[in-house]
Design brief:
Helices cover about 35% and strands about 20% of the residues. By secondary structure, the protein is of the alpha+beta class. The termini are far apart. A hairpin with a 2-residue loop joins strand 5 and strand 6. The N terminus and C terminus are likely disordered.
Length: about 400
């Protein structure tokens, strides 16, 4: 497939995504009249019909996957962004999760403000291409084109270390509240899905972006298509990437930890640090290879310290060391359980092994044992108390 072939598949050269129809009027950079459906519940009243498109921020060249693109926009000078993506048709719309989260008044300031949306069935040649690519035993999800208009926020990787850490703590508390109150899991914590804005008092307020992979617990899902962002994915998610598994709050905490480490060692978003691609094994290669790197990082203190030594800010490094110890200790406990299970396994008869096979398999698959909210916060030397549950940390 060559670049010149992309327009035949509906790829828009300017906007940078597979375009199901013409979005902008030819004479202006305004969206077609009546295209967007207003979303109620925002704090700022805006006339969504006046959206004016700006510059393209992100635009992945992809034919399979979500292919998320983000474009700047504004309404009468009010700064916005429009997120375009190809979502699985069976997935609940992102705006529904966001509006549900915004019902929690104590964390509403951490949930993005949205103003409009549009959903379009896939009528591009890509749909036919997807059908043609289907093979026996492998089914590609049917997708639809979705757009969401939201307030523009700032990138956290431009913050100073102290402010960056403050944002992370706010996000972890927000995630905890979402889980305790709504049983909602975000599912894709990463450096690009956390942002901030300045309040009227000029205080930094964290914002949790991108609810595309959100779900309600308990939720068993196959991660063949909906996994997350590789450098920040929890070990258990990576380990069961081709099977059905149940997402838990401990996955959110592990991803938050990896986000802090990623930023701390010098990555600016996804830009490789001048000192080198320190965490290359977290982002390149197969799921198995990335899982191996994450396991080594958690299980082997020397490997963890070698990575954390790249964090120049002393306080941020200390936070990471404390959290890392929590995950290491939990992993060591499961390793001991696995060894015990192997000893017991060798002593069983053939029939007993058949009966115990499922249990043994489950023990062997435990690569990311639960670390609680309270343990994560205490490891980070932060106050674990919260208003959403008493006592804090009781719920996984």
């Amino acid at each position: 497939m060559f670049y010149r072939d992309l327009p035949d598949l509906g790829f828009n050269e300017i906007m940078g995504y597979c375009n199901p129809f013409d979005f902008a009027d030819e004479s202006t950079n305004k969206l077609q009249s009546g295209l967007l459906e207003p979303v109620t519940g925002s704090d700022t009243p805006l006339d969504i019909s006046k959206v004016v498109l700006g510059e393209k921020l992100t635009s992945p060249y992809c034919l399979i996957g979500r292919g998320t693109s983000v474009i700047k926009a504004n309404i009468d000078g009010y700064k916005l962004v429009i997120k375009f993506s190809w979502q699985a048709k069976t997935r609940k719309n992102e705006d529904e999760f966001i509006l549900d989260a915004r019902t929690l008044l104590d964390i509403i300031k951490h949930i993005p403000e949205i103003f409009g949306k549009v959903v379009v069935n896939d009528m591009t040649p890509v749909a036919k291409l997807r059908d043609a690519c289907m093979t026996k035993g492998e089914i590609f999800e049917v997708r639809e084109f979705r757009a969401l208009v939201m307030r523009e926020y700032f990138r956290i990787y431009d913050l100073k270390p102290k402010d960056f850490w403050a944002v992370i703590v706010q996000i972890v508390k927000c995630l905890h509240t979402l889980f305790v109150r709504l049983k909602m899991l975000h599912g894709d914590i990463s450096i690009s899905n956390i942002a901030f804005y300045l309040s009227e008092k000029n205080e930094i307020v964290a914002v949790l972006l991108d609810f595309d992979l959100a779900s309600y617990f308990p939720f068993k899902q196959s991660s063949n298509h909906r996994t997350g962002t590789a450098p920040f994915m929890a070990r258990e998610v990576l380990d069961l990437s081709n099977k059905e598994f149940t997402r838990g709050f401990h996955h959110e905490l592990e991803s938050a930890f990896y986000t802090v480490v990623w930023h701390g060692v010098g990555y600016k978003g996804y830009k490789i640090p001048k000192k080198g691609d320190i965490l290359a094994d977290w982002r390149k290669g197969s799921w198995k290879k990335i899982l191996g790197a994450k396991r080594s990082f958690i299980r082997e203190p020397s490997t963890m310290m070698e990575v954390l030594d790249y964090i120049e800010d002393k306080e941020l490094r200390t936070h990471c060391q404390g959290i890392g110890t929590c995950f290491h200790d939990a992993s060591a406990e499961v390793t001991a359980q696995q060894k015990l299970a192997n000893i017991k396994w060798r002593k069983l008869s053939f029939q007993e092994k058949l009966e115990a096979a499922d249990v043994t398999t489950q023990v062997a698959a435990m690569t990311a044992p639960p670390v609680t909210y309270a343990e994560w916060m205490k490891g980070a030397d932060e106050d674990p108390s919260c208003t959403c549950c008493q006592p804090p940390g009781d719920t996984q």
